[in-house]
């Protein structure tokens, strides 16, 4: 009887350890949530734009910080949704930046900075902040100047996904502002009976 109780306790301990490990597997040593499909690069933004283009994709940079509840929401609620993640993976190369990190970054204008000094230079103060870059490397501009769109903060599924779609469709080159585009898509989803609560 004691032996059975011991084996049951050992099995429960192993299961609890496994569950705990699975829950923390998505957090890196820097304390940021991770997606296994995020790109690991040298953070040379011009090279990353070119690499994304060579893959038929666009570059998006995402700024996060340790302990950010909105970053956790983005990873747990949005990036875990196959409709969202599949579209992003197919169309974008995502590179993660630590808002207060010390990794080296090379700006489009050639400045070599740390992640935290780059965030300060570019004026990014919220996490998460997603920065969408053009298809071609602009000359003599900073990342902030070259960005075709910036999304500060965490939003609901459709706002989040529609921003990626608007950029992929180059909506920033046309006359339909993102908010108008988003409203149109929401109306189409509502008409199709697909609208989920934001």
TrEMBL record:
Name this polypeptide is given: Thioredoxin-related protein
Protein source organism: Hoeflea halophila
UniProt keyword terms in alphabetical order: Signal
Signal sequence interval, chain numbering: 1-22
Lineage: Bacteria, Pseudomonadati, Pseudomonadota, Alphaproteobacteria, Hyphomicrobiales
Domain of life: Bacteria
Domain Thioredoxin-like fold: 52-136
